Amino acid sequence: MEGNPTFFQESTSKKFDFSSPEVLELLKRKKIEFVGTATSDFQADPFTYDEHGKPLVTNDWEFELLKNLEGKKSGIQVQQTKEHLPNFFTHKELYVKRSLEIGQNMFRFSLDFGRLCPKEGSFNRTLMAEYVKVLAHIKAHGQEPMLTIYHWPMPYFLLKMSSDGAIEAGGWEHPTVLRHYRFYIKNVVEYLADETEIRRALTEESFDKKFIDKVIAGGLVQYFISVNEPESVLLPGYLAGVFPPYKKWKMGLLMKVLGRLVEAHDITYHAIKENLWKMGNPGPKVGVAHAWPYFDGILGDVAHSIINKGISGRFEREGETTDFLALQYYFRMSVPNFSRNNKLYGEHPKFSDIYPQGILENLKKMRTLYPGKEIFISEFGFSESEGQQRPFLSMETVRYIIEAIKDGVPVKGILFWSMVNNMEWAWGMQQRFGLFDEHELMKPLQYSAPGAIKGWEAWQAVANALTKPSPETLGHLQKQYLVAKSQFENSLFSKKEAS
Question: Measured between alpha carbons, how far is 57 from 45 in angstroms, rounded to an integer?
Answer without folding.
Answer: 13
